[in-house]
Each structure stands twice: as structure tokens, then as C-alpha cells.
Amino acid sequence: MGYFLAGDLGGTKTFLALYAATEQGYTLVREQRFANSGYDEFAGVVADFLHGSPEHPEIAAFGVAGPVAEGRVRMTNLGWLIDQGVLRQQFQLAEVLLLNDLVAVAQAVSILAPEDLLVVNAGTQAPQGSMAVLAPGTGLGEAYLCWNGTEYTPFPSEGGHADFAPTSEMEQGLLSFLRAEHDHVSYEMVCSGKGIPNIYRYLTEGAGMQVPAQLQEALAATTDITPVLVGQAREKEGEVARLTLEIFFSVLAAEAGNMALKFLATGGLYLGGGMLPKLRHAFDSKRFMERFTDKGRLAGMLSAIPVRIITTERAGLNGAALAAFQALQKNRHR
């Protein structure tokens, strides 16, 4: 038996878990959430988690919200610089893996339980077909998986920063509105947590839509307008809120279709991130698939692709755990 550590590092919180390897696989020993605001560096979080623990991990894997290069990553929102070599020495670990957070989610796709998935399109999964993961959250994360002959291997992507391509006059107006403020307008600026406020501002400031006084007051009293808009969309006078969400989902579906084409994701398209589970009641599967498949001559191929929403918030942690377990197994067989 051996122990390994896994973690999911977001912009505001860190989720760490210790696991024990067994003959059948691995089991959870304990886990803990940490508020990142209480720490100057990630090593402090790990030290607090391991302090006084009788079990010491051999391997660690962390999914991190940021691009990983040469075993290092700097978390933009925190300023934390995480170096796998430094962590390995500091905590006397045989190996430390740093994964982009979407790569960690992609790693978990193969082990997600049916209850962790919401079916958008049943489709027909092609054996060993490539898979793609699209995750709207604070930003817009993208990753993909390819079959290497024995198993699926996840790969990172920064596709969320690709140029936003409007597909309607309304979206063209949105692009023009945002280009007046930014040199570059990406998909992330439209279909992510920051995208919903951008769409709302365009509709009210650019397109001149009227906002009910009640909605104005509610928006002025909060720093996160998304839940307010979701609630207003159900009301009789919620036209601007409904249209905001319609544009958000339309652009998300179009980019999901783009990913499915670019990676030939006949194995499935998975929607992750923290936003969609909170927006489930506003999500229209039929309308989403209409936009997803609206790709001309390849519409038929896209209609056969399975589409799922990942509903568990543990996907990133589970993926990091699987990566750590696989590394532990390889170390044991060397």
C-alpha cells in the first residue's frame, strides 16, 4: 500500500485529498478545502494539509487553473508561482505532476459515474474516438483526449482565447461593441463568467434595451449579476435577461461544435466548469443541439456525437487523483 496526494486549485479555493493505493485501485483517506486568500503560496496549503498526518504521500498531482510550462505555472489571479521540482524537494515526494485544470477534468472523463453526467444528446460513441471538454467558468477552458493505443491521453488547449466568430446580426453587434473596448475579442469574453456581464452590457448600452427598475436595483446590489439575471429571466418583464442567456448558450453551443469538428470528437463532447450546473434550468438541450450541429454539410456527423454536461464539482480532483495513481503504479513497476 502507498499514499498519494491530489489537488484541484482554483482562483479562490483549493481542494486537497489524500488517497491510499490498494490492490483493487485506491480509496479516499481524507480531504479538505482551503480558502486561497489565507495563504501567500501554495506550499503553505500543502503544509497545513499534511501537518500531523501519520500518512505521507509518495506522489502528488495537482490540477491548476493556468498554463503549465516546463513543470511550472503562475496562477494569474493569485500570483502564486508553483514549481513541481520545488514541491517535490520540500515535501520529499518521489514525483509531482502539475496539470492544467482542464486536463485534470479531461483525465476524469473516463471514470465519471452516470449520475455525474447530464445527457444533452445521447448520440453514438465511436470506439476509441477522440473526446473534447469545454468548460465555461471564470474563463473558458478547453481540452481534448486522444486514444494512444491502450488508453486515453488528455491534452491542454487555450482554444477559449481564439477569435470570437459571430453567427448572427445580434452577435455581430456584440462583437463590434466589445471590439470598441478591446483589441482582441475571444470566445472566453462571451461564453464564460465574464461573458454574461459583457452580453448584458451590450444589450443595454449597445442595443438600447430597457431594464426594469427592479432588475436595475438588484444588479446594483450585487457583484455577481449572473444569478440575478437567471432569476429575472423567469419573470414576465425579463426580456433582457432571457436574451442575455440565449446569446450565451448560443455562442457556447457554436464553440462546442467548433471543438467537435477540430478534434473530430466522435467519442463525445463534455461540458464542464462551474457555471452550467447552476444554469441547468435555463439550459435548452434542443436549442443547444440545433446550434451545435449548425455546421453545413457536417451537421449529420455532429448530430451523432454524444454530448454530456458534467454535474459534479469533483471532476478536476478526481482527474488529478487518477493521474497520481497512474504515476504511482509506474514508479512501483520500474
Question: Your description of this structure?
Answer:
The strands form 3 sheets. The chain has a 6-stranded mixed sheet with strand order 8-13-12-9-10-11, with helices on both faces. A 5-stranded mixed sheet has the order 3-2-1-4-7, with helices on both faces. It is of the alpha/beta class and 334 residues long. A hairpin with a 4-residue loop joins β10 and β11 (152-157). It has helices spanning 42-50, 84-90, 101-108, 169-179, 195-206, 213-220, 226-232, 239-262, 285-292, 299-303, 315-332; strands at 3-9, 13-21, 26-35, 59-64, 72-74, 81-83, 95-100, 117-121, 131-136, 140-147, 152-157, 268-271, 307-310. It is built from 11 helices and 13 strands. It is globular, with a radius of gyration of 21 Å.
